[in-house]
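agent: user wants the full assembly modeled, not chains individually. Plan: 1) parse entity lines 2) check alphabet per entity 3) run joint structure prediction 4) return tokens. Steps 1-2 passed, two entities, 512 residues total. Proceeding.
--- entities ---
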Amino acid sequence: MNHQQYREGLLLSLYEELNSEEKSRLDMHLQQCRECQIELEEWQKLHASLARAGSFAPDDALLNEARQNLRAAIRAERTRPSLWDRLADFASDYVLPDYKIALGGMTMLAAGILVGRMFLPSVQETPQVTDRHFSSALEGEPRISNIRFLDSDAQDGMIEFTFDATSPVHVKGSINDERVQKVLAHALVNDQNPGIRLRSVNALSTQTEHLKQPDREVKAALILAARTDNNPAVRREALKTLGSFPFDEEIKQTYLHVLMQDANPAMRIAAINALDSARMQSPDAELLNVLKQRMQSDENSYVRIRAQAVLEEVKQQ
Amino acid sequence: MHSRMINAEDEELVLQAKSGSITAFEQLVHKHDKQVLAIAARYVTSSEDAKDIYQEVFIRVYRGLKHFEMKSEFPTWLHRITVNVCLTHRSRKKNFVHVPIDGDDDSESETHGAELHSNDEPTDQHSVDSEIRGHVQHALESLSAKQRLVFTLKHFDGYKLREIADMMKCTEGTVKRYLFLATQQLRKRLRVVYD
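--- prediction returned ---
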């Protein structure tokens, strides 16, 4: 190694990037090279200064905010037209005017196939709409999207393409039906419209009031909504609905998360009240610690007072 | 053993997410996003930029999942995307304002340090450290995009040089060079702090 390599080696040594052989060669060189000893001291001083500046790690509030923004962006992403849709629009409008008639014909063909499928006796893809548990279910007009041409040359009289067909489904069924609940849970997590999410969680809350064994998927959706939905009304209703479920570690962690992370004081108060109502048999150190932190440092005076009251209450148990 | 369990869990979540489960995707995000945000927050100067990078990374993951063949582990793929987004974010925005280390605008540097990161109780020691933080932040901003990324990945996140090389798709020697240049530059700019 030349002198420059030893100098670089000093830095790599501080970052534990040298193997044992390189390290011992460097140590031997250091013993006899004053210049490198000074260089090492300089690196060590730099590291000490960097250590005092902290780790530059983001705080939990930022993480929470980023997660909420991401959920909204993913929702938008899910409703965004695909590249194929946009290309098809572009092509039909500007690039391929000669194919307009063919495209129209193909769409009609696709619609015809769909109508044919609806009148066939075995409609296996939509068992839920004919199931006895759904007292009324009607399919609406199918929506065709994502047409992909495998062969668009109609000169030989044949074309080939694939497409996605989605049909609106009208359902009138019992709120106790597990599948109805799953649809509502799905809407609660995925729907872009906060009004729909709120109505979904409201519907779920009426159903879960007397539930002994909640559906796992519904519970997961409620927990996710209580923690991360960007609409406070949805978060609040999800948190309230969780209160109807048997209290467990997951629900406790959700309450604690809301109490520590939610920027909305009404949510933090709701979390304290939920913890209070849960009447835990043996309050653990984590709960006491969170309540103590809120009591001492929450910016909202009512949250501080409630945290103190509940803390005293659980300590007396 | 533990690592294999984690990988199996990731693999399962990736498969579910690929088949359209948004819950599985969210679980993947929540499992790995702290590290992504940490990389972003150390790389950029404002919380808004850090959130932009975070969002861009996971939108790319969401779009790219259907093409992800699990030839590499999910975190490796995720960190490669993070590195790419960081580098393009910097080159796209080019909004880093360089303030000389011996400039007189210390208040701005302190506010800036406080914007992204949580603070402890105010004490004398805290205010000294906060001042150092401001100097370090300015010094980091003076680095080139790649130097800064290599330095933050190595110094703060503790990645091995070969891992950084893999994320940046370059050789370990190149990473060493960036690291050395970055630390030389930091040493020059921070001498005022430690001398």
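agent: reporting back. Residues 3-39 of chain A form one domain. Residues 60-79 of chain A form the longest helix (20 residues).
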